[in-house]
Design goal:
The complex is a heterodimer. Chain A is mainly β. By secondary structure, chain B is α/β, with parallel strands linked by helices. Chain B has an 8-stranded parallel beta sheet. In chain B, α7 packs across α9, α9 runs parallel beside α15 and α11 crosses α14. The chains are: A mainly beta, B alpha/beta. Chains A and B meet through α1 of A and α4 and α6 of B.
């Protein structure tokens, strides 16, 4: 019996208890933009690593359970739904597409991602959005310490609280926090919420299905004091 | 008595302190004036135990040599034979080390690709992503996977011939990258998603993994992303070579790249370059020992770098157990870096040809370590590529000459037994006997 089975709803289910990871990823990576087989369901992920990485076709993959490290890594156009929690580096370096985690995520969620949207219904651990390069991230719960460290561009929306050193060494990413911030990192400061910021925030809240108003959020960004080396900032290097 | 008839008293000549020598004094003055550490390019400049401290024994009554130019002496190397579906096959074991577009001009990157391709070897991207020019002119291109992930994307990852996970480099083990604002041009800024003109700092740790257990999972992901085709290199700065090599192998590396403290950098603090890491001479044998202890010597290939200058260095590194070497600084010199042709301009920059190391300032008269379009245009990538190809050929021919003299029909057949050391330090580090003795310090008494 094959690990992949097509259901009445035209969804192909793939059982990772019956077939190796390589087979799953090779199958999904082998689909092109014109594929008609757009719905996939992965069963028994059992915390496995590197599930559904490197997808480039406009397909929807639902993972029924918890995923390990780097789930949906380098995603470029696919929708990946995780009906569970995800380990370190979910959607790392995503280029485009949507990754939606229904549970919590571990460290470095959305790390270095260039585009797309990452939604986390639960909490995110440390370094959420580290070195992000254009991705949009919405975390409905809290984020851990050093989130948005060296974040370059994109938007990080935190509907709960943020841990220590939020936005340390921040470049041009926008941070929006509804709850409290334990501390700001070097060169991160409160910014006035501009009309453009509001538009971005309203759009992301709507896409993530968050019932909140932009006025409830505080906008943070880079003070740009560390952009060029200066003796007066030596303590921050 | 008339003073004019006093006997002449000789004056002592001005004497510089060995501790506070003129360079040290100038550095104290510079630090006092600016309040910030000195940043420069290149590798360590201090004298270190190096390959010059070793000599080959050559053939004698008990060994017979191969006939130069007549008998075959192979130079090829296959990298990535452990797990990769598509190992890379190079005609010479001299590869081009990672150097970024950003640190180098587009013409310089093109010239590196041209030169490497002409002799059948590989070149390597750097902390800035892959440019179409570089991919187009490099038959075999290694794509570096760095902490910053600048320019990292799936399409380029799949275009690469191999992937090099960079954990550290010899010039700055434990340190991140640096590219000062003068070199963040529009194109560099766009490739790195950064504002133009800022002093760009790269992280020293990867953003989504720490430690060898995580690295194993990261390598799994990279293989899954690329259909298990690409050889995965792991590059470390030479610090604890035995354990770093063992851990890289444990994590699943196909190739370990070991960079000694002579290895160059585009921009790093002087104090870092000169005071962190160990010479490549001291690093090779422990790394080889780790591979041998794991039963994987020659199965996981070892590339070493850091101060490789000539075919003798190549041959000695390989005799100590490396499968291949990488060059960076020497390749730039072959392109034209520090050429006396630009002496007048070097003097205007307060330096001289042969000593220019302010690669971070973007004012390179040779047009290599710059993003200034006027300066960059000075480097003809075709001619510079030819110079590099010539130089790579010389390295290979020289290494063959020495291997034949030792009676070896392939560079990989060179072995530590072919070498002796001229100094006690080199004997201890390279673990070969002091010349004329059977003494290897630390091994036998």
């Amino acid at each position: 019996m094959s690990a992949a089975q097509k259901t009445m709803e035209n969804t192909v289910t793939f059982d990772l208890a019956a077939a190796p990871l390589r087979e799953l990823n090779a199958t999904l990576q082998g689909l092109d933009a014109s594929t008609n087989q757009t719905a996939w369901s992965v069963h028994n992920p059992r915390g496995g690593h590197a599930i559904a990485v490197g997808l480039t076709a406009p397909i929807a993959v639902t993972i029924e359970g918890h995923a390990g490290y780097y789930c949906a890594g380098m995603n470029d156009g696919a929708t990946v739904i995780i009906n569970g929690s995800a380990g370190t580096g979910v959607a790392e370096n995503m280029m485009s597409g949507l990754v939606h985690v229904k549970g919590d995520v571990s460290q470095s969620a959305g790390a270095t991602a260039h585009g797309g949207l990452l939604i986390v219904d639960g909490n995110a651990s440390a370094r959420c959005g580290i070195s992000m390069k254009g991705v949009n991230i919405v975390v409905k719960g809290n984020v851990g310490h050093m989130s948005a460290f060296m974040a370059q561009s994109g938007n990080l929306v935190i509907c709960g609280d943020a841990g220590e050193a939020l936005g340390d060494s921040l470049y041009e990413a926008r941070l929006f926090v509804k709850g409290s911030v334990q501390s700001l990192g070097a060169d991160c400061e409160v910014k006035e919420m501009s009309a453009e910021d509001k538009t971005i925030l309203v759009d992301l809240l709507a896409k993530a299905g968050v019932d909140a108003k932009p006025e409830e959020f505080t906008r943070y960004g880079s003070a740009r004091k560390l952009y060029n080396f200066h003796v007066d900032n030596a303590g921050a290097y | 008595m008339n003073e004019t008839h006093l006997p002449h008293i000789p004056q002592t000549k001005p004497r510089y302190s060995a501790t506070f020598d003129p360079y040290t004094i100038s550095e104290i003055e510079r630090a006092a004036a600016t309040g910030i550490y000195d940043i420069r390019g290149g590798g360590t400049k201090r004298k270190l135990p190096h390959f010059d401290d070793l000599v080959f024994l050559g053939a004698s009554i008990s060994r017979y040599p191969l006939e130069g130019y007549r008998e075959k002496c192979g130079t090829d190397v296959v990298l990535g034979t452990r797990f990769a579906k598509k190992p890379i096959h190079l005609k010479t074991p001299v590869t081009i080390a990672g150097m970024s577009f950003g640190a180098l001009s587009g013409n310089a990157k093109e010239a590196l690709g041209r030169g490497a391709t002409a002799v059948g070897t590989s070149t390597t991207t750097g902390d800035g992503g892959m440019t179409p020019e570089e991919r187009g002119h490099s038959q075999t291109l290694v794509y570096q996977y760095l902490p910053s992930r600048y320019g990292m994307n799936l399409a380029d990852l799949r275009k690469a011939d191999a992937i090099e996970v960079v954990i550290g480099q010899g010039a700055k083990p434990g340190g991140g990258g640096m590219l000062l604002g003068q070199k963040i041009s529009d194109r560099v800024a766009q490739m790195r998603n950064l504002p133009k003109g800022i002093d760009q700092r790269s992280a020293c740790r990867h953003p989504d993994w720490t430690g060898p257990d995580d690295l194993e999972i990261k390598i799994l992901e990279l293989r899954e992303l690329t259909n298990w085709e690409k050889p995965i290199y792991v590059k470390v700065g030479a610090t604890r070579p035995y354990y770093d090599t063992a851990l890289a192998v444990k994590a699943g590396a196909d190739v370990v790249v070991l960079d000694g403290m002579q290895g160059g950098t585009a921009a790093t603090q002087e104090v870092f370059i000169e005071h962190v890491g160990i010479p490549i001479l001291a690093a090779i044998r422990p790394a080889v020992q780790a591979l041998q202890d794991l039963g994987l010597h020659r199965k996981v290939q070892l590339i070493v770098s850091g101060g490789i200058r000539n075919g003798a260095d190549v041959a000695k590194a390989m005799a100590l157990g490396a499968d291949a070497v990488a060059i960076g600084t020497a390749a730039l010199i072959a392109l034209g870096d520090n050429s006396p042709e630009f002496e007048d301009e070097y003097r205007k920059l307060g330096t001289t040809a042969g000593a220019y190391d302010d690669w971070h300032e973007g004012k390179d008269p040779a047009g290599i370590t710059t993003q200034d379009p006027v300066l960059a245009a000075r480097l003809d990538p075709v001619k510079a590529g030819r110079r590099l190809a010539n130089y790579l050929s010389v390295l290979t021919l020289e290494a063959q000459t020495l291997a034949r003299a030792c009676g070896k029909s392939h560079l990989h057949n060179l072995e530590p037994e072919d070498l002796v050391a001229l100094t006690i330090e080199a004997a201890a580090m390279a673990q070969v006997p002091l010349a004329g003795t059977s003494w290897i310090p630390g091994k036998n008494f």
